[in-house]
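Hi support team,

I've been running sequence recovery on a batch of backbones for a student project. Most finish fine, but this one hangs at about 90% for roughly twenty minutes before it completes. I'm not sure whether the input is malformed or the queue is just slow. I've pasted the structure tokens below so you can try to reproduce it. Let me know if you need the job ID as well.

Thanks,
M.K.
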């Protein structure tokens, strides 16, 4: 979760997963996304061989949002089980680690064209609204923790 402070407010980088909007040019995807109610999520991905979870988080943030960030603190882990909707339907246990990060550089939504299969759009949203805007329960919890963190640590710079 990448945050930055602008105009006396905290902002968070969010993505709108491509889903069915993922096929087509950036202009076509944007037109389809505008017609739908946006679904916001946090950047995340699979840890590559030899990579540490924090390295994965930093890489995924850059790939999916276009911005670079640095670690502030670990927010926590979310654990859940799901059944695959493809193939064997096997139950999968998953752990997702979330980190609070400070914006360093880059322009939101300037991502490689091949990432448009995963990300329709990246944008800044108000951190105080994030818990209401994010689609997934665990991510909503992490947004609340991030808001608590910046409230308790006023010296954090964005």
């Amino acid at each position: 979760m990448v945050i930055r402070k602008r105009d006396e407010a905290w902002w968070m980088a969010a993505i709108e997963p491509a889903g069915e909007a993922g096929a087509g040019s950036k202009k076509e995807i944007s037109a389809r996304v505008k017609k739908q109610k946006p679904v916001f999520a946090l950047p995340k991905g699979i840890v590559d061989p030899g990579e540490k979870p924090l390295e994965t988080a930093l890489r995924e943030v850059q790939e999916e949002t276009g911005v670079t960030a640095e670690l502030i603190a670990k927010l926590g882990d979310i654990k859940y089980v799901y059944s695959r909707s493809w193939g064997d339907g096997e139950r999968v246990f998953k752990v997702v680690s979330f980190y609070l990060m400070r914006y360093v550089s880059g322009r939101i939504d300037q991502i490689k064209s091949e990432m448009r299969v995963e990300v329709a759009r990246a944008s800044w949203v108000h951190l105080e609204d994030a818990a209401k805007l994010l689609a997934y329960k665990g991510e909503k919890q992490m947004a609340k923790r991030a808001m608590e963190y910046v409230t308790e640590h006023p010296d954090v710079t964005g």
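--
Follow-up from support: It reproduced on our side and the slowdown came from queue contention, not your input. The chain has four helices and five strands. No action needed from you.
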